[in-house]
Every structure is written in structure tokens, then in C-alpha cells.
Design goal:
By secondary structure, this protein is an alpha+beta fold. The protein contains eight helices and nine strands. The relative contact order is 0.15.
Amino acid sequence: MDIRMKGERSRASVASFPTSAEERTVRRDLAAAYRLFAHFGYDDLLATHLSARLPSPKGDTFLINPLGLLFEEITASSLIKVNFAGEVLQETPYHVNRAGFVIHSAVLEGCPNINSVMHLHTLDGVAVSALEEGLLPLNQTAIALYRNVARHEYEGAATDEAEKEHLVRDLGDKRLMLLRNHGTLSAGESVAEAFFNMYTLEGACTTQVRTLSMGRPLHDADQRAIEKMSLVFSNDPENRASMDQFTREMVWPAMLRKLDRVNPGYAE
């Protein structure tokens, strides 16, 4: 399921077309996110995708992965620049996954305050997305996320433009979503925030799968504690600003240092 979009030519490095310092940083960060998810085992062969909005007057251009490269192979220069009209804006021999274009262009165009979107098909994320209850408040991480995860009904492979409106409607003002019977989705004001949101959601899903697999009686957390912890990922603007700062200034630099040790070369 790929889309051959306009502007496709031969492969070129980032240096072969004009880029700003801001674009180079976004490219580096998004390439790093791809490789980090590969490191954590969140990739799915050639499927799933991460995106990041690029600085532009209209805010209508973004980066997404070239279909055919593994997450662990992604570099800053291999990421494909595309606009909301589906036009490829750089030289590349690769195609863009059609479902990826639909999902990411929908959220980035429909949510101007969102600058990065990530979608995965992990085993545990898909398993939880298939439960009627979705994510349960069974552990501290899930409790923090519990009231802040949206849900979107499965509509088949996300290749129909009509699904864009439904994705934006269902996400609302949240930063996390379970795509029913499909997988997980995160969003953020930066690549760092979207990465941290997804890492947190996937961890909660894995813990839930392990907890339910034990077949033992479950202990419910105190409702007052659930209400208190749910504020951690709440939609309050002040809280969101604090979370974004935390991920950009503390979590993300640590992740880049880790990646420099285990899989360098992503910034090329």
C-alpha cells in the first residue's frame, strides 16, 4: 500500500537542496525517533510511520519515512518532505506509504498545535486496542494515561481520505489514541514529546498484557489516586507546556546520547 506522489526523482542528500537549521534539527530528531523505536522493538518490518511538521509559512509540509527502509536504517537525509496536497518536495527514489500519508496529513493539518505524529503496530499495543475496555488503570503509568487516551474505530487500511475527518474528530485535544483493532498513535508539539508519549503508552500496554496473562485477581487502585494521577497527562495548557519542556530538555537529550552509542549515523 504505497502512493507514488508528485516530484519523485533520484535520491539526494539533505545537502543537495536548501534546508534551514530548523529543518536539519527536525530531520535529525525524527530519524533518531525511528531508530530508537527499532531499538526498543517497536517496528513492524516496513509498516508503521512517524512524521514531523517542518517550519514553513503555511505549516503544510512534513517529513515521513521512505517506504522500503527499515526503521533502523532511517537517516535525516532519507526522510521524505511532502505537503498536505501529497506532493513530494525533494529528490527521492522511494514511495510514501499511502496509509501513512493519510493518517499523518490528517492530524497535522487538522491540529495546528501538533507538530509530530507517531503510529505503531506493536503486539501489545494492538492487543490492548482490541479489548473493549482498551487501556485499564492497572498500573501507575496506565493510571496517568487512563483518561487521556482517545479511541478511533477501525475503518480498514487507512487509505481513504474520508477517514481524515474521523481521525481528527476522535483525537480531539488528546495526545494519545488507540486505533481500534489496529495499533497506537501519539502526538506532540515536538518529536521529543510525541516519542515520550508513545513510549509511555506502549509501556502501559505491555504491563497490562502481562498483568492480565497471570490470571489472578486484580487489585483496583483507589479512585482518588486515579483522579490525581490522571492530571499528569491532562490537557491543561500549563501541564502540557511543562511536559513538553521535560521531554525536550531531559528525556530527548538522554535518548540521543543513547542512540549515539548503540546506532550512530542517524543525523547523516
